[in-house]
Amino acid sequence: MKCFASFPRFKDGRNAMELQVKDANSGSLWQFRVFVRKNNYLKPVFSKGWCNFVQSKNLKVGDKVKFYKEEDDQGSGAQFKIKAKKAVKIFGVVFGYAKA
Q1: DSSP three-state, residue 87
Q2: Is the distance from CB of 22 to CB of 28 less than 8 angstroms?
Q3: pLDDT averaged over consecutive 10-residue blocks of the chain (100 residues)?
Q4: pLDDT at 100
Q5: What residues form DSSP beta bridges with 31?
Q6: Is Transcription tagged as a keyword (predicted)?
């Protein structure tokens, strides 16, 4: 699961954590709760805060969301960022993506 390789590690055997993420488009800060199930399905799941983000961006099926880690310019460590893009469709065909 290299797409989640940059996520922080769960500590002390826990399966959930709070994750602060900066919106790369607006600069707003978002707080998400991230957890993994306690079985063999280890892909992270976003819960608390996720629906608010989706609604605020008016995201729909086919839109894109990118999570990434970026080093701070002042050298104070890494910051997690999120970038949402809306699918641009003409007659139901995706021609590209625009900032959400």
Answers
A1: strand
A2: yes
A3: 60 79 92 82 83 93 88 74 91 84
A4: 78
A5: 20
A6: yes
* pLDDT on residue 9: 67
CATH of 2-99, one of 2.40.160.40, 2.40.330.10, 3.40.350.10, 2.60.120.10: 2.40.330.10
Q: Where are the domains of the chain?
A: 2-99
pTM of the model: 0.76
For residues 68, 73, 78, 83, the Cα torsion angle rounded to the nearest 10 degrees is: -20
Backbone angles phi, psi at 56, to 5 degrees: -65, -30
Q: Cα(52)–Cα(42) distance, rounded to whole angstroms?
A: 24
Cβ neighbourhood burial of 32 (10 Å; 0-12, 13-18, 19+): buried
Q: How far apart are CA 20 and CA 29, in angstroms?
A: 7
